[in-house]
Structure formats: structure tokens, C-alpha cells
Amino acid sequence: MNDVASALPFASTRLVLLSRSEILGKAVRQHLQSIPHCSVVLQGSCHAMTDAVDLVLLDAGSYALDECLGHLRSLHHQTVALINAAPERAWRLVEARPSIKGVFYPSTAPHNFTKGLKEVLAGGDWLPRSLMEKLVRRYRQLSQSHGALGQLSARELEIMQLAGKGLSNAAIAAELHLSTHTVKSHVHNALHKLGASNRAQGAAIVLGAGVPATGAPA
Predict the structure, then answer these.
(1) Which DSSP state fits 196?
(2) Which burial class, exposed, middle or buried, applies to 184 when counting CB atoms under 10 A from its CB (0-12, 13-18, 19+)?
(3) Count of domains in the chain?
(4) Fewer CB under 10 Å: which end of the chain, C or N?
(5) Which of 76, 104, 127 is the last residue of a domain?
(6) Are 49 and 43 in contact (CB under 8 A)?
(7) How far is 52 from 186, CA to CA, in rounded Å?
């Protein structure tokens, strides 16, 4: 689609709405009328995005999930808020880019949308309560996992990383020149320390933390 621009002369705040919907673009412009000296440009792609933009509004409903993720990668230097984002889609995108400053669901009331935009433009964050609670739970889980990782021996850490690469206990034993029984014992101890219910979950915690194994003997 052709990019549609609508800018106020001498505007001091510049927004880009990344969307394929001209109808949404008109609605956003209407809401922005209550924000002085603010202009918005509707673009269908990330091309020709400049650093002079104060905020990018990514219309999460206009693109497939992988397209949204691609846009976020391209916009890594920009301040971004999600608009028209269904709750599950918003969660996936905030997981991928925690620095997202604002999230607006399709059901967001117009006055809350304007209020939220003002907060984001002022340097704050605007996230739905349900999403914020989910982020807090995830943060607590990661904090607990990080603490548990510190309890693993170097050998336990090494074995769980190999398990995360798909190696069986027998294959790990051969790789590390250990007995299968010893590997099973290390896995059992590691799962207990991590609070993981199975091998796959334990390996996911270790790999997700990105901690390198030391390779030291047990």
C-alpha cells in the first residue's frame, strides 16, 4: 500500500503508525487531536524509518506474528508501543521485546488510549493490568530459576545442557566418559535443585539462562 502521511507544521512530537489499515490510521489521528503539537505518519513497512521518530505504534493486528517479530527486530533502536494487539499476541511480543513501552488491546477505550499515549510519550509505561501481572509472575519464576542454577555443580550444569541438546543419558555418559548410572544420579539431583518435574523442563531452565558449563569434574 502507499504510505499516507499527515503531519502538522512545526510538530514537536512525531509518531509513526506501522499498519496496513488506513481506517486505523484515521482513528489514531482523531485521538491524537487532544495531544498538542503531535503528528502521526501511517507506514506499511519499516523502510525509511528515521531516528527522528519519537514513538512507533505497531499495529499487531495488521501482521502475522512472525512479521511483527521481524518489525520489532528492525525497530530495535526505536521506542515502540503495540496497538490493536490481542492479549495472547501482546504477551508473545512483549516476551520477545520486554522494552515495549505500551500495549493497547483492541478493546481499549478511546480515552484510555489517549491517556496511555500521553504516559508513554512522557517516558512512562502503559501496560494492561493482566499483562503486567503475567510479567511479574514470569520475572519471579526467572529469579527463582536463577537462584536454583547457583546450586548446581559444574557437572550437573554440564549434563543438563547436554540433555537440552537432545542427548540421552547413555549418550551423555559416553560424551563425558561417565557411567549411565552416574549421569542419571546427576540428572535426578539437578531436577530436585531446579524444582523441575522432568528432564525437558530442567534442561529448558538451564538453556534459557544462557549460563556456560565449566566442564569441571563432579
Answers:
(1) -
(2) middle
(3) 2
(4) N
(5) 127
(6) yes
(7) 54
Residues 66, 18: one domain? yes
215 part of a folded domain: no
Strands 55-59 and 80-83: parallel
Q: Which domain holds residue 170?
A: 135-209
pLDDT in tens, 160-170: 989 888 889 99
Q: Are 107 and 139 found together in one domain? A: no
- The per-residue pLDDT for range 180-196, each reduced to its tens digit, is 999 999 999 999 888 88
Q: Are residues 113 and 174 in the same domain?
A: no
CA distance 117 to 121: 6
Answer yes or no: are the C-beta atoms of 205 and 149 closer than 8 Å.
yes
pLDDT digits 0-9 by tens, 77-121: 899 999 999 999 999 999 888 899 999 999 999 999 999 999 999
Locus of grid cell 512512562: 124
User: Which stretch of DSSP H or E encloses residue 45?
Assistant: none
Whether residue 72 lies inside any domain: the answer is yes
pLDDT bin (cut points 50, 70, 90) of residue 217 is very low
User: What does the H/E/C string look like for 114-154?
Assistant: HHHHHHHHCCCCECCHHHHHHHHHHHHHHHHHHHHHCCCCH
CB 169 within 8 A of CB 184: yes
What's the predicted TM-score (pTM) here?
0.65
